[in-house]
Write a structure and sequence with these properties.
The complex is a heterodimer of chains A (426) and B (530).
Chain A lengths: L1 H20 L2 H6 L1 E7 L7 H20 L7 E7 L5 H14 L4 E4 L3 H14 L3 E3 L12 E3 L8 H9 L8 E7 L2 H16 L7 E6 L7 H12 L4 E6 L5 H10 L9 E3 L19 E4 L8 H16 L12 H20 L4 H8 L3 E3 L5 E4 L6 E2 L3 E5 L5 E6 L23 H7 L1
Parallel strand pairs in A: 1-2, 1-3, 3-4, 4-5, 6-7, 6-8, 8-9, 9-10
Antiparallel strand pairs in A: 10-14, 11-12, 12-13, 14-15
Helix pairs in contact in A: 3-11, 4-5, 11-12
Chain B lengths: L1 H12 L7 H9 L2 H14 L2 H12 L2 E4 L2 E6 L2 E4 L5 E2 L7 E2 L4 H15 L5 H12 L7 H10 L5 H13 L5 H11 L5 H10 L13 H50 L7 H22 L7 H23 L8 H23 L15 E5 L2 E4 H23 L1 H11 L1 H6 L4 H23 L11 H14 L4 H22 L1 H18 L10 H4 L1
Antiparallel strand pairs in B: 1-2, 1-5, 2-3, 3-4, 6-7
Chain lengths: 426, 530
């Protein structure tokens, strides 16, 4: 193994020397493959397709500036079609057949759980760009989305505050899979620690792709009438959000009466929904398109130009959102780590990832934690505007460190949030 | 308009020229509590510029430039304090963000002001708005309006609003009177208020110490609950009918192709999907060429969806299915293959992502029938549409020559052929009819759900379930089955959640079909024996 690494490094440095010394043609020939594993069809395509495109945009940018360590990045895009076992198959294909150096992919936690054993077995490297429920840490994964304490908990705290409406009763509504179930378990424990009683919490789930939200909305209305100020926490994922918000608007459930805060609904999911009846409903993220700062302006422009140049279907209304930002940061951090490690090897890149920073479009300098593989992120809470954008109504003072093991789940106190230590413990 | 006039009168009566600059500044730059206080100050002033400012603030049209507060509408800006035009527009501007709390307070204040309007409709609307939750600050205004109000419809509403607001303070007698009055209400908000009085803290002590108040609240709560229960049942019934109508639309086409003709058409869902995509195309054509008539694109989309799906269906029948009559297994496999082919074709043409089909404006929103029941227009329309399609299909099958032929051919092909019915052509037409109705279903479904290449997959199982459950070959059976399944699903969902409901319905169907393979309504007579 060592000898092979040595030879590879030798070859690499030779290549770099050659590229610098003689011809740019040689540099063009040297490539490194990366995998892009996002659903481009099925129920999750509504959210994941743009992530594929934003990764490709970052790749184009990096390639235009000479690639990574002189190697041109060659993306391998596959479509796991919102089919969880297919995710694992495609991941295996990417690592063992295409020999990709890194994979950027997944949205739903169930897809991440499906590919996780593959990455651990084949020692691959995955960058996961979406907020999730925590309760996981792997030496083969970097999580550039939010952990519960960087999204769910602050959002609930906001709704409890006077500004958020002082909610006392809670509806936890989600799609039926691991992320909503776990998040709601954490939230339930959190709410109880704040003195909310069992009878004041209602939990409800719908299947993936559910499209008839009549009874759910009626239930919410009934629950809201049975006592104090009610708020809804929605962890509905995928294209179900469109009928959910349509029904919400049509049934006249206003944000001033019962606010709905969503953790998986951003600018992209609200495209094509008439947001006028939805004004005031909330979303908690670590980035909003409406955030004003020079980085974000530049990034939005890049994206708009890219969609036009590539004639993407959303070119007439280019939107950016939080997971896109996280995916974008991921690609650049990987590049920086490779350059620091001077190697594409997973172990070395992983080590070099610790403490990497990137000036993020959200306006902060995002830092990869030295140990726990999660980004430090600022938290924003936004209210939907009539044009489908969000008004930021609350934000943290600075970046928050992720707690992948939520203190609100019993038994987590003993777990260390260091993948290196976790691996040796196993 | 008249409100504006009235407010103008108000300003003429006052010597006030500018808003309180300090309050406006606080409203724009202050923290949440300061903003609430500033709002109260402005409302007390009663200047019409304040109404404009508050309306702009809640619509998100207020911006700041340095120390100045501007109302910006398009390219025009006015100073919020003086009302003067500001030209040119300052370059550096910041949005003033109104959050839910502020918006609620603004709404409440604006409605309360409108209570004094001379226009009855404006007063009624304001009272209705306040009835769903008024802020404490508006109580004096409500009382003032109550004293002036003579309209028999509005006055009781005002009394109710005042009662709600007085619940929190006041003497024991006034509170009990207010609680009694709340008992006449049928609004869910009242229930919330009354329940708050009956609350216990963690040690099990009542938050409300006075026993008489609690007893009154208990009695009023029972009265309100009694009224609300009807709304809940009504809402659930409507949800059941709505789901039933959707299932019926999806299954009606199959009732012809499978029920009457006996073709196991696995591509039925894709015919629905094609109908939905046709709607999408028509919508885009309207948007591009006839934007002023956009609201009526559905009128064009319906026949188009029917025609396109019927055409695809007839081609299918001519090219594939006709060679497989009497071989159900091969038909099943072939049509399943076709369905995959159609999905892939749509994916290639339109992309794998869902496409957006917008509701025309007359199908958005809903109608409030009871205080706690809102019927969304799109669902009401689909129920009506399903009924229309059903009647149309029934007429076609029973009152026309084609219908007679279809029934004849499906009951006894040889005999029909002997008396000169062109059975091959009738088959094609009947299949086309079934496919066309699937297209209509697609057009309707595009109004409530997502339109994507996989749309049909979600409905194929449900459609077969409805047809088999209702009894193959029976139109009436299909109707009953669709409604039964719709109700069963919705009642179970209300009781146990969507996931369990789905499983329970499937288990129920399996058991039912085992006990009664012929379905709800069995064919009788000779036709059944063949």
């Amino acid at each position: 193994m060592k000898r092979r690494t040595f030879i590879r490094q030798l070859a690499l440095s030779a290549a770099v020397a050659a590229a610098l010394g003689a011809s740019s043609v040689y540099a063009q020939q040297k490539t490194v493959k990366i995998g892009v594993l996002h659903s481009l069809s099925g129920t999750m395509a509504i959210s994941e397709t743009v992530l594929k495109d934003v990764v490709l945009m970052a790749v184009d940018e990096i390639n235009a500036k000479g690639g990574v360590m002189g190697a041109k990045i060659e993306p391998v895009v596959v479509d796991p079609a919102s089919n969880w076992p297919l995710f694992a198959e495609k991941a295996r294909q990417l690592i063992s057949q295409d020999k990709v150096a890194v994979v950027f992919g997944c949205w739903t936690s169930v897809s991440r759980k499906s590919v996780l054993p593959v990455f651990e077995e084949l020692n691959g490297l995955l960058f996961y760009p979406v907020q999730y429920e925590g309760e996981e840490i792997s030496k083969n994964v970097f999580y550039t989305g939010a952990a519960p304490n960087q999204q769910a908990i602050p959002a609930v705290e906001y709704l409890m505050s006077k500004d958020g409406g002082g909610a006392k009763r809670w509806v936890l509504l989600g799609t039926d899979y691991v992320y909503p179930r776990t998040t709601n378990k954490i939230l339930r424990a959190f709410l109880k620690s704040k003195g909310v009683q069992e009878a004041d919490i209602m939990e409800d789930y719908t299947p993936f792709g559910h499209s008839d939200y009549q009874t759910i909305i009626a239930k919410i209305k009934k629950f809201a009438s049975e006592g104090k100020k009610t708020a809804v926490v929605s962890t509905i994922n995928g294209d179900s959000n469109v009928p959910f918000y349509k029904e919400l608007g049509n049934q006249g459930l206003k944000a001033t009466d019962v606010p709905v805060v969503a953790f998986s609904v951003g600018e992209e999911e609200l495209r094509g929904v008439d947001t006028k009846p939805l004004v005031g409903h909330l979303a908690a993220w670590n980035y909003f398109m409406s955030i004003k700062n020079p980085e974000n302006d530049a990034w939005k422009k890049k994206w708009a130009d890219y969609t036009k140049a590539k004639k993407l279907p959303y070119a007439d209304k280019p939107l950016t959102n939080d997971p896109m930002e996280a995916a974008y940061i991921g690609v650049y951090m990987w590049k920086q780590a490779v350059e620091k490690a001077k190697s594409f090897e997973v172990a070395k890149v992983t080590a070099a990832m610790a403490g990497q920073t990137f000036k993020a479009p959200s306006g902060i300098t995002s830092k990869m934690d030295e140990k726990n593989h999660h980004l430090h992120k600022a938290v924003f809470i936004g209210e939907v505007k009539g044009d489908g954008q969000f008004n930021v109504v609350w934000k943290t003072k600075g970046p928050v460190k992720a707690q992948p093991w939520s203190p609100f789940i019993a038994g987590n106190e003993k777990k260390v949030d260091e993948p290196a230590l976790m691996a040796t413990k196993k | 308009m008249r409100t504006v006039f009235f407010l103008l009168m108000l300003v003429l009566a006052r010597p006030c020229l500018a808003l309180d600059a300090a309050a406006v500044g606080k409203l724009a730059f202050g923290d949440a509590d300061e903003r609430s206080a500033a709002l109260a100050v402005l409302v007390a002033e009663g200047d019409p510029k304040m109404v404009a400012l508050l309306e702009a603030l809640s619509a998100g049209d207020v911006q700041t430039a340095g120390e100045r507060v501007l109302i910006v509408k398009g390219d025009e800006a006015t100073d919020a304090v003086t009302g003067a035009k500001v030209t040119p527009l300052p370059k550096e501007r910041e949005d003033v963000v109104a959050n839910n709390r502020l918006r609620r307070e603004i709404e409440s204040a604006l409605s309360a002001l409108k209570l004094l309007s001379p226009d009855r409709a404006a007063r009624l609307a304001a009272a209705q708005a306040l009835a769903t939750g008024a802020e404490d600050a508006v109580l004096p205004l409500v009382k003032k309006a109550m004293a002036q109000e003579t309209d028999p419809a509005i006055k009781p509403m005002l009394e109710l609003i005042a009662a709600t607001l007085e619940l929190k303070g006041g003497t024991k007698e006034s509170r009990i009177a207010a609680i009694r009055r709340l008992g006449d209400s049928n609004s869910p908000n009242t229930k919330t208020l009354l329940m708050a009085l009956l609350e216990k803290d963690r040690e099990g002590r009542f938050a409300e110490t006075d026993e008489d108040v609690r007893a009154a609240a208990q009695a009023s709560l029972r009265a309100v609950d009694g009224k609300l229960v009807w709304g809940e049942m009504g809402g659930l019934l409507f949800a059941g009918v709505s789901l039933g109508s959707i299932l019926l639309l999806a299954a009606l086409g199959l009732a012809i192709t499978y029920g009457l003709m006996g073709v196991i058409n696995m591509a039925h869902g894709e015919l629905i999907m094609i109908g939905a995509y046709t709607t999408y195309v028509v919508q885009n054509l309207f948007r591009a060429h006839l934007p002023q008539a956009f609201d009526w694109y559905l009128v064009c989309a319906l026949p188009a969806a029917f025609a396109v799906s019927a055409l695809v269906g007839m081609v299918l029948e001519r090219v594939v299915i006709r060679w497989l009559y009497g071989r159900p297994l091969e038909t099943l496999l072939a049509t399943w293959g076709i369905s995959l082919g159609l999905i892939q074709m749509v994916r290639t043409i339109f992309g794998a992502q869902n496409v957006g089909v917008e509701n025309p404006s007359w199908m958005s929103g809903g109608i409030q029938v009871l205080s706690n029941v809102v019927l969304p227009w799109n669902r009401v329309m689909i129920i009506a549409f399903a009924a229309l399609v059903l009647v149309g299909m029934w007429m076609l099958l029973t009152r026309t020559r084609l219908g007679l032929f279809v029934r004849g051919v499906t009951q006894n092909r040889e005999m029909a052929s002997c008396v000169g019915v062109p059975t091959a052509r009738v088959d094609t037409l009947a299949f086309g009819l079934g496919a066309g109705i699937a297209g209509l279903a697609g057009c309707a479904l595009s109004q409530i759900g997502n339109v994507g290449p996989d749309l049909g997959q979600g409905y194929i199982v449900d459609s077969f379930m409805v047809v088999v459950f209702g009894g193959v070959g029976q139109l009436a059976g299909t109707v009953y089955a669709a409604l039964t399944l719709g109700f069963a699903n919705k009642f179970l969902e209300a009781w146990s959640g969507a996931v369990i409901a789905k499983i329970a319905v499937l288990v129920f169907i399996i058991i039912f079909i085992q006990r009664r393979p012929q379905g709800l309504f069995a064919l009788k007579g000779r036709a059944a024996e063949t």
